[in-house]
Amino acid sequence: MKNFLERFSSGKNILILFVAFFVFNMFLFPYYIPIIEPLDLKFAYSSKQAYQLIEGYGETDRQIYANGLIYIDFVYPVIYGLMFSFLLFRIKKSVILAQIPLLASLADFIENIGIITLLQYFPGKNLLLAGMTSMFTTLKWFSIMASLSILAILLVQKLIKKPQTVEL
């Protein structure tokens, strides 16, 4: 893992990932997932709340949402996971810290699979799957918040760190 991070966490790669991150958030998601209240943007939800939302989407929006998750939201976790992982590694050189955004990405993938399954099998209901999907949604958001918090702390530390002088 360390070799991978040392090799690929360049400023150029971070910039490319940031541009892709921006494009996804500003253009692709609003166009391909126009749902007003998607499950994956909630912090947590009960199985009952999940199915109330899914029912409220209607047949067409359920299909649009599922397609958006399949074709767009399976790439996005790779982009933000690597971007934040590379940033954390560049600042702190810690493989452990760099793995936190990758945990968010993994949780996001599992969440996407769960939501797609819930959407495709509706009106059938699987309360256990809905609950587990919510658990991965929450894990994703906790991991993202931890990544952003650590990144902010490290950046502030870097900004306030006084340059050391060398005495001759």
From TrEMBL:
Biological source species: Rhodonellum psychrophilum GCM71 = DSM 17998
Annotated protein name in UniProt: DUF4386 domain-containing protein
Transmembrane parts of this sequence: 12-33, 69-89, 101-121, 141-160
Taxonomic placement: Bacteria, Pseudomonadati, Bacteroidota, Cytophagia, Cytophagales
Keywords: Membrane, Transmembrane, Transmembrane helix
